[in-house]
Amino acid sequence: MLEKLTKNKVLKITFVWIAAVAILVAVWLLAPGTGKPEVAGSALTGDREIALANDEKNLAADSDTQAANNLTAPVSGLPTSDDFTEPDNSNNGNASNLSGGNGGYHSNSGNSSRGDANTNTGGSFTLPPVINPGTSQPTQPTRPTVTLSIEASTAGRGTILTTQTVEFTDGETVFDVLYRVCRANGIHMSSRFTPIYYSAYIEGIDNLYEFDKGPLSGWMYRVNGWYPNYGCSKYVLQNNDNIEWCYTCDLGRDIGGEFAAIGGH
Q1: SS3 27
Q2: Is 56 left (phi over 0), alpha (psi -120 to 50) or beta?
Q3: pLDDT tier at 17, thresholds 50, 70, 90
Q4: Which of 72, 167, 217, 258 would give a disulfide with 252, using CB separation of 3.0 to 4.6 Å?
């Protein structure tokens, strides 16, 4: 009897161990990352990556197709070639022009009109009026000018320099312009500085000097018909001044400058 009970206990214990081992094996096989389930999982992961790559390729292809469709699709509202018609140029060879009056496109014959820009109906397209920029150009600022002449009729020399228009800059004097014009025209000029008048004094022009025609002879200048009673290097020019250099043989009396002769040249 005792032997029978011992055998039964051993069987039960053995069964329990076998069951426990079976459970452990089953758990080990089903656990992720071990045995065949790991291989199955890896295969599943590879299939999923391939599927995702295919989906990305399909999306890229769809995007390219959509972009191509957008480029080739007609844009709504823009005129087509059917909306343009050539003007009738058969009327005596008159060329068509753009009329700026109402913005319409008209022929010179006056009979054919493409319509008014404000009443554009039926899908027709009206050319806009041409804006003529004009031919005027911005003018450059001009420098002020004076006129200058040199005359010695009283000395029998006549006109040494006919009237010339000369540009000058602000602050220049009668002496500055005379010196520049004589050099430009090859005319001799001699001058000296006179401290008593603190100004330049013109001794000779074109080799005609003071006292060449007597003790009262010499050069005088007038501006706008007036003989200044101070030196020519002290007279500051104004725009449009008329300068005349004249030779006198009688201290200015023979040229109408006797009152200025006392005050200097």
Answers
A1: helix
A2: alpha
A3: confident
A4: 258
Q: What is the mean pLDDT of residues 28-57?
A: 57
Contact 126, 142 (CB under 8 A): no
**Residue matched to tokens 């509202």:** 77
- Separation in Å, CA 82 to CA 90, 123, 176, 190: 21, 10, 74, 84
Q: How many helices (H) and strands (E) does the chain have?
A: 4, 9
Annotated domain spans of the chain = 145-261
CATH entry 3.20.190.10 includes domain 145-261: no
The confidence band for 241, taking pLDDT boundaries of 50, 70 and 90, is: very high
Q: What does the block give as tokens for 226?
A: 């007036």
DSSP element (H, E) containing 116? none
Place of tokens 């709504």: 76
Q: How far apart are the first and last CA of the chain?
A: 170
Taking residues 9-21, report their average pLDDT. 79
| Predicted TM-score (pTM) above 0.85 | no
Residue 146 — pLDDT band, cuts 50, 70, 90? very high
Helix ranges (DSSP H) in the chain: 2-30, 35-72, 174-184, 258-261
**Using CA of residue 160, residue 163, residue 164, residue 167, what is the dihedral sign?**
positive
Q: Around 232, how many Cα atoms within 13 Å sit in the side-chain half-sphere?
A: 24
